[in-house]
User: Fold these one by one.
Assistant:
Number 1:
Amino acid sequence: MKVMKFGGTSVGSASRMQHVAELVSSAGRNLVVLSAMSGTTNTLVEIAGYLYNHNSEGARDTISRLEGKYLKVIKELYSTEEYAAKARDFVHEIFAFLGTFSKQLFGPVQEKMILAQGELLSTHLMLWYMQEKGINAVLLPALDFMRTDVQGEPDGDFIREHLTKLIDENPEAQLFLTQGFICRNAHDEVDNLQRGGSDYTASLVGAALQAEEIQIWTDIDGMHNNDPRVVKDTEAVRHLHFEEAAELAYFGAKILHPTCIQPARYANIPVRLLNTMEPEAPGTLINNIPEPGTIKAVAAKDNIVAIKIKSSRMLLAHGFLRKVFEIFESYRTPIDMICTSEVGVSMSIDDTRYLGEIIHDLKKYGTVTVDLDMCIICVVGDMDWENVGFESKALSAMKDIPVRMVSYGGSNYNISFLIKEEDKEEALKALSASLFAK
């Protein structure tokens, strides 16, 4: 069995849904994970915002507008009144439920219930369309098997036990559908997986079922070797190691969330990135098989802040770095890059919510300087230190660009450069010309 996940743009209209149904119905007895239709989750967030601000009229107007969108999709999606009526009744029920939140105390629990409705809508509409076409599809409600523990992490044993039971109860099913993103927490409340959303669901489901393969279907032909919005003639990377994919995702490749494929990696299940609009294209295969001697891709991460703390007292000072790191830990702010010397340490962060407080606390230990509007450029591939000349290829490509920091050796799969955002385009083009030119 394969797990096939389709994102919001893949099911963003009636015609897209019909295309996905045709694609999955000819692929075998698999499990399909669906996101909400594109734009739906953002609108649900907007509705929640009105309710937090006690603006019932704004919430009702937005609910009505979104309901109208779904009624239009239903009109275009179904060819029989039987299934169209079933879908309309369900949509009216969902939006009537959304309307009840304006009459009650509103908080995070209620917000998560609202956000869950997008995936419930897309999966039910798809289920009835498939059944209308004679496909024996069965819906496996994610809220019946996808659960997190008291730490907010997925409960693997619960997921495996309850999902397997649901599948075994439907031996005649040709196809299974479920919702991405949504789950229940340890208190049995409706919640969501946050990191990676529906991709994370697909990875968890694939690991629980020991699936043959996990397929992530989007509107792009796999992960590219550079940012196609900046660099012309980029190409899809046909194979990545899990660690290479995680590095690219963390440092800017938007097609994947950096942590969402970890369950697949640990279960040794290959992940394939595919294009809904070009289903015959090979896409990108991600697995645990290394490919020595190759540089795979370049990614960029914007909105970075560099912080340097300089202290003459640091020389041989026991505990200095621990004190610095504890400041970032106290504000739950992760560090992207770090470089040290005898008299100072430089770090980069992308979460600036507590930047002022962090700088204030760091000044206890030395002189602090801050550089805003920075960018991390990450070159990913087989960067083992014994590969003579690999890092020099990347370095030589950056010879005309001011580099604030370089990170190399923390991983066998990347070398990273911290530069000004204004130099990003030039850097990406230079690296492509140096590393991928034919």
Number 2:
Amino acid sequence: MEKILLSPGPVALSPAVREQLGRHMTHHRSKEIKQALSRLQSSFQKIFKTKEHIYILNSSGTGAMEAALTNTLSPKDEVLVISAGKFGQRWKELALAYKLTPHEIKAPWGEAVNVSEVKEKLKSHPQIKAVLVQACETSTAVNHPIKELASLTKNLSQTLLIVDAISALMMMDLDMDDYGIDILIGGSQKSFALPTGMSFLSLSKKAQEFQKTSSLPVYYFDLTKELKSNQKGETAFSANVSFIRALDASLQEYLKQGFSEIRKKAKTLAQATEEFSKHLNLKLFSSAPSLTVTAISMPENIDGNQVKKFMEEQNIIVGGGQDILRGKIVRFGHIGHIQFKDYATALNVFGKALQKQQPEIYTEELLKTAQKKTEEILNK
């Protein structure tokens, strides 16, 4: 039995992507790849909603996060880190690695940042050069209010808004040019439904000005060098030919389908998860839920790690909790090539996993009721 992959990333691949990944190899300087790179620019500009250039890097999303800092900032620059989960912490770790000076606003895990706190911090520390935030904090399934945060930095000529949208692109309204997002970051293994290993980012005009004075060390992720190569239809270093072909196919597929349909499917899956949880008297962990992923809080006497292990034994792969949430939540991803019938199966196995630990609470009758209600949503 093929595994049903419902983690928030990596995600299940479509047949079109799998076909492209299995094709014969070609040279990364070939005409075919130059044409694909040109199409990708056009496709990405529609997704990022920007007129600016999109950089395609051979790295996981963290590489693009690093490139965002190293191409625009200088040692000891002050940055504001929005920390509300595992990936917010990563911004701080990156800032410290490059000898930046991080200020931090912490939101409780499961909650979005308070915009007024950010406003006050920027007011009291006008020397802050960048605000670093996730659009979707995948570890907690929380969406941060990006449009509202962008309104705080849009007219501050000396402060950038850098947004990790690795798990949010196509699942959230992130109009880069209109909102005033200065650097927007994506990753291949989320909504773009490729394997991990490719990341994307775009710089606003303001960020491009910062780029001119940046003095942090950079070599492989030097976007100035990358742009010169891109303008000739090439990449600065050897490109991942298979990924470029697959990404081209994936984006053409998505643009033809339309963002509204992609989000509609994710919303249906999120609603089914919420309904199933409600009938089992389980609570969602996030107070600002995302379409990308739903996090379900585990009751006090249920071990989320054992739930996840039981599901894996049944060939269902979901996300667990990270760091302080280890064993305390289970996360269901809603992106990638997911079939509704597979999702219904996964929820049913989730119920069985709970039943194994507490059969007196999660009875057959209760599971059947929850199953019926969720299948009504998935079969609409």
Number 3:
Amino acid sequence: MNDITDAKIIKYQFEVPIKRSAADIWALMVNEIDAWWMNEFRALGEGSKVTLDPRTGGQLIESTADGISLEWYRIQMVSPEQALYLVGYMAPDWGGPTTSMLKLAVEGRNDGGALIVSDALLGNVTEASAKSAEGGWKTLFGDGLKGFAER
């Protein structure tokens, strides 16, 4: 049986203001990711470890003590202390096939800094799945990273 579906592209962007310097936001985002990555976003369950290797070809990986691992994203480009460009894939079991091209940029502001999140989804994408992805990132970066950074 052949199942042919048209691919779609949906892009969105939002900003998360954080009352820390841009350098602090970058350091927390990259070096402390496991501390602020919320449990409800751990695909492998509570107790998994989230790591980020912030260099071209590096990975954003979630893993468990018993050897199960999931590659969330691979780093396409790094502009140190400014932006990470990541590419990730969603398998059909999780609503794909979909490719996510995620940019995480850090900028200074008068009252601290901001994380600017830009995502482009290509593949089996609907308006509902795009809103779900955007809402998830807003929660993870807004409640997770921002909450951790401002405590």
